[in-house]
């Protein structure tokens, strides 16, 4: 099995004016997959479909090689899930919440739970209702890691947490991945965080998948070019021209945003009598913004 | 040693990590026989994908800088003084290339950069 998650032509209508449309995702086994998209792009809905919490209107879903929703219980036994909003019983203590959670998973590892409790500095006797937001975030991560999942689905796992807690939570997650061959699916709009850890990215917008590729391809493929003496009409570009704008005045010329860039393509500019002044690398966030901007443009 | 890892840079993270190790070996900060941090520890510390660290270590192994011993970790190999000097030369050259590219962006000529370099380093140059 090469994909931990695979959907084909997934469809689901939510209310009157939102739908997941023709969504085909492939999340390679063993990858750390960043599921990016602005708020309201359908990330949480997709996560809920993957875990059998919503029924698809059409298309198919396979998680860990099994069909969803028909095989949900078996899949969930091997899947850790940290939802966007923590679902814990406030009247339980930390220790009780762990025992409660452990009862559902035959794969629960007490040792790991104890290690993480110490590492996160969680007090076992404290009631959930008394935990800070950061402590709640740590407990949610602890519960999902201690069940030794083959797949971990994290929906905005660090949203609203302070940087110190975010670091601790991510380090624990990476520590787990280096010990076990697990697949991590992280939905987030915190682009910089994903840039460090993910080896695959999928980008959502308005219920559709805009792009899905290895992180390095994504980062290297999109460039901003400064071009002088550009002809007004361009055709047959060896790259995909996403956007073309007049420069910022300081440097003059035009700014082109291109996809699929490779260095030998510099020659193209001589051929059309233009001059390529500079190739600017974009980081993940800029690439993400440019991609969505051009995706949303009518006719693009 | 890994403070300067920049996830936003277009240079792949594994390349950046390997580069830091090469530099440390070239400068003698890492001596032959010394262990590199374990994959697990470095990944958690840098908050990068463990696969990225493995890829960096494999690259270094292929280049002959380190040796990965099954089960016990990754160790610095004795590459010899000549190779260390060569590596230092490469590092310096890369630095100069970056500097010249940045100078070009700001509209400075190589000649001007060179003059400034002489001024700054004083008698050394």
What key phrases describe this protein's structure?
heterodimer; A: 300 residues; alpha/beta; Rossmann fold; Alpha-Beta Plaits; six-stranded mixed sheet; 10 helices; 32% helix; 30% strand; elongated; B: 125 residues; mainly alpha; Arc Repressor Mutant, subunit A; two-stranded antiparallel sheet
Walk me through this protein's architecture.
The complex is a heterodimer of chains A (300) and B (125). Chain A is of the alpha/beta class and 300 residues long. Chain A has helices spanning 43-50, 72-76, 94-102, 110-120, 133-146, 163-179, 191-197, 215-221, 267-271, 284-296, and strands spanning 3-14, 18-23, 26-28, 32-36, 58-63, 66-68, 79-82, 151-155, 183-188, 200-205, 208-214, 223-228, 240-246, 254-259, 275-281. Chain A has two domains: 3-206, 3-Layer(aba) Sandwich (Rossmann fold), CATH 3.40.50.300; 220-295, 2-Layer Sandwich (Alpha-Beta Plaits). Chain A is built from ten helices and 15 strands. In chain A, strands 7-8-9-4-10-11 form a six-stranded mixed beta sheet, with helices on both faces. The radius of gyration of chain A is 22 Å and the shape is elongated. Chain A starts with a strand and ends with a helix. The mean pLDDT of chain A is 90. Chain B has helices at residues 13-27, 39-46, 50-62, 81-105, 110-121; strands spanning 66-69, 73-76. Chain B has 125 residues and is mainly alpha-helical. Helix content of chain B is 58%, strand content 6%. Chain B has five helices and two strands, in the order αααββαα. Chain B has two domains: 13-76, Arc Repressor Mutant, subunit A; 81-121. Chain B has a two-stranded antiparallel sheet. Chain B starts with 12 loop residues before the first helix and ends with a helix. In chain B, a hairpin with a 3-residue loop joins β1 (66-69) and β2 (73-76). In chain B, α1 crosses α3 (50-62), α1 packs across α4 (81-105) and α2 crosses α3. The mean pLDDT of chain B is 89. The chains are: A alpha/beta (300), B mainly alpha (125). The A-B interface holds A 30, 32, 167, 170-172, 174-175, 177-179, 192, 195-199, 216, 219-220, 278, 281, 283-285 and B 7-10, 12-13, 39-40, 43-52, 105.
